[in-house]
Amino acid sequence: MEVTHVCVLLLMFWSGIGDAHVISNGFEGCSEHSNHNVSCGSVLNGIKGYFVNPDYPNDNADPGNCNIRINITRNDICQVRLDFLDFEMAQPDVDGKCKDDFFMGFNEAGTMPVLCGSIKEQHMYWDVVTKPSMVNLSIYRSPFRNGQRRWNIQIEQIPCCSRGTVGNHILQLLCSH
């Protein structure tokens, strides 16, 4: 993944009576932004990462479940945003149901909608109700389908006070430019 530019704002606070005083009065910094890939059987502990199929960007024909867990450990996280950068699964049947291959997720707030087919440049928000908690994401790959599958889903934990949050129970936010 190529980064075209990076903007950094550095704020420094001195209280004159030690760093503990500054942190206890609401100023704190962290550097837990991980940008690594996780795949089947993995745990994402950082604030950001990518859920990819084994051997991504190559297709994957292996059947079975591919599960990951996102650990939510910070109390200020209210949502998880999933960006479907690259997602190719079996198409839904004639009734619009995902039967062969599908993506789903769940946490204490409930179950995400089941998704399948081709999805690119779409996103989904998922509420985080309790902390610490976890979000489980799963890809089911049917043993009865010989087709190729591929996925790259960007995961980002969104703090409650961030401009990136949307209202509770809103799965997707569409903006016109």
Summarize the structure in short.
Pfam families: CUB. This protein is mostly beta strands and 177 residues long.
Notes on the protein architecture:
The protein is mainly beta. It has one domain (34-159): Sandwich (Jelly Rolls). Helices cover 3% and strands 38% of the residues. The protein has one helix and eleven strands. The chain has one helix spanning 19-24; strands spanning 36-38, 42-44, 48-52, 64-72, 77-88, 101-107, 110-111, 118-119, 122-127, 133-141, 150-159. Strands 1, 3, 5, 8, 9 and 11 form a six-stranded mixed sheet that branches. The protein has a five-stranded mixed sheet with strand order 2-4-10-6-7, with no helix packed on it. A hairpin with a 2-residue loop joins strand 6 (101-107) and strand 7 (110-111). It is globular. Mean pLDDT is 79; it is low at 1-32 and 173-177. Residues 40-158 form the CUB domain. Residues 1-20 form the signal peptide. Pfam families: CUB (PF00431). Keywords: Disulfide bond, Signal.
The total of helices stands at 1
CA radius of gyration: 19 Å
Oligomer: single chain
* Most strands sheet: 6 strands, mixed
CATH class: Mainly Beta
- CATH topology annotation: Jelly Rolls
Strand content: 35-45%
Overall geometric form: globular
Fraction of residues in helix: under 10%
Count of DSSP strands = 11
Mean pLDDT: 79
Keywords: Disulfide bond, Signal
Pfam families: CUB
Domain CUB: 40-158
Protein name: CUB domain-containing protein
